[in-house]
Amino acid sequence: MAIDTVPPLIAAQLNYLLSHSPFPIKVEQMWSGCKNPRLLDRFTLVIPFCLDYIKWDVIYNAVYPLAAPDIIFGPEDETFRPYNGYNEAGDSKSSKNCLADWNSKDPSRLLRLIIELRDAYTTYQKKRVGEVDDDRLKFELSTMLSREGIEMCTSSGIDKPEEVRFAVPLLEMDINKLVPGSTWKRLQKIYLQVMFPVGKKSPSAPRLKLVSPAELKALFSIDDFKLPSWLEGMCMAEYLPTLEEMLQAQIIDAVSSIEVRRKFIMVLVPLLGRPLEADPVFCRKATFLACSGVFTFLVHISIPLQFPKQKPALILQSSQHFISHGVPVKSSVLTDYPWSPRWEISEMAGRIFDFLVEECLNFKKYCNESMVLLR
Amino acid sequence: MDDFSIEKTQLSGATLASLLHRSSASTADLHGYLFGHVTLTIHNSLSDESTSSATGSSLTATITSFLSLPSHLPLPPPPSHTTTTTSSSSSLLGWFSARRKTVPRPSLKDSITTRTLSSSPSHLFTPKNSSLSLPPSLFLLLTTPIQDKLIHTHEYKAFQYRITDNTFEPKSLSIINVGPIFRSHYESFSPNAPFPLVNCDLRDSNAMVEDEKGESLGALKSGLKDQQQLDMCAEGFEIGRLSKLVGSEATHLTAELEELYHKMLAKIDGLSKLVEQSSAEVLEQENNIMKLRYKVAGLE
Predict the structure, then answer these.
(1) Do B166 and A5 touch (CB under 8 A)?
(2) For chain B, which residues make up each domain, given as ranges?
(3) CATH second-level architecture of B6-44+52-187?
(4) Residue-wise pLDDT tens digits, A198-223
(5) How many angstroms separate the CA atoms of B37 and B58, rounded?
(6) A99 contacts in B (CB within 8 Å)?
(7) Rounded CA gap, A316 and A293, in Å?
(8) Roughly how many angstroms between the first and final C-alpha of chain B, as a whole number?
(9) ipTM for this model
(10) DSSP SS3 for A316
(11) Which of B106, B112, B293 sits opposite A63 (nearest CB)?
């Protein structure tokens, strides 16, 4: 039986979209809408919006792939009608949309269409939030709208009260540039998610949450950041500067602590030899090859973000003992060694070395035992 | 532009079946125009209190026919209203979109097309017994479920596009079938293609027949025209013989009628052979086109 295929013209557009999109888009499912069910021409795109996702179905036609695709928006966005009424205004510029002069040979078209529609969707949600009848919200809107890249939406379900969500991009600094040689592909931006309950007589404090891309965890964990408390009667314009100031200071700290970790790895070199492998950008991990007599083993050191307040975690891995399928024998995570954040880093390295000298004997015994168990 | 709400939407079972068949037989998605008529019914609330005087009127749209084409082709400019008024029974009510395996919600294209269609002033039509002016604002969406496991194979939804607030208003669609419930509908039915009105004189045998036979050119012409019209239904049946079916000469009625029906059947038979031949040619052509399409799409 033939394998499911996406017609080449459609595949080219989709692949371009997935690899060139400025925001991470995912394909949730793909299916076929033609008589030959092997030809996939419909798919659901999961597009990030306002720290959440919107799902749009893209409907191509496998038999006529030269035709422009059609889009079905989410069930809660029935009133979102882009490209409607532009012609009436007689504005020739705005009536020229991506669908009007579709060129199936140009792989960038689908991405352009999606970006154009997402922009239209942002404007649509902004308009909807503006129509919400809530005094505090109206005030917040007037003070926050000037922020670049702010996104907002209203949401209401059957079982939950209506609320307005904001995604506020924080800090103007470019975190990607702060870390030399970083491998991040996407822009690392921290957002504050603000959820305002609306329609209540006495306005209660909004729910606040920091959101960052998962890759940022290598440098800075937003979970470790304590949000300043929201005082009664406060507004976002008051709250944001304090928050940004604190966040900026902590990020600069986080960047400078890369150097501390790098130095720590360096001082381990005279004791354990050059590392087999080390994370050169964030200096969070290093692996050394060590031996005790004829017993050779690897030492994996992972250094926490709070180093030197927190001690590194060690894992030993034998180079000589393997359980089934060639999986090497490993120790559990070892942190049970003396530590003080007030020590010089050379002292810290020395203590780890002393610990390893003793611990490797235990580990060797453990390895031999697990081999015996295997027989 | 007036924006009236259509209360009821009706569709004959045969038309729906034909629509569903057309969409499931096609290689890909379809769209097309819906034709039919709108009637205005006035409810008189027969209450004694004259003060309320609630005279409500409601519009009922009945879809009787459609025109379909593959949806990658743009809809042709809709037939202008003036040409369809001659039969007065069918005007452009709206359009439909049939797409496989999609959620039954109007898509981006659907909303653009519907808006364009219902906002163009040249397609306003007037229901039979009223002076209202309505845009073709109906939209019928036919889909098949995305999951294969469901028990039903088709889904359809009818909407009326409200131009004032730019929304699709879901409308219930009632299917007209045979049965006593639909009796009233059939009683008000009038055929779209009546037997042509042919002029056959009722001649009295005793009157001054010879005098009236003054063969004027005009009479000859109209006779030829009538013969042509008759040939459309029954080829080779002479117009003169029609007169035998009426009047005093109608004693051999059965034989003449049978002859007429035979001619009609022969005509239909000939036509269906023609249709069969041309369908075979169309199919062959479609297959060729499909092969070329696959080549263009890079699927070979």
Answers:
(1) no
(2) 6-44+52-187, 196-202+217-300
(3) 3-Layer(aba) Sandwich (3.40)
(4) 777 667 788 888 888 888 888 888 88
(5) 14
(6) 108-109
(7) 16
(8) 51
(9) 0.72
(10) strand
(11) B293
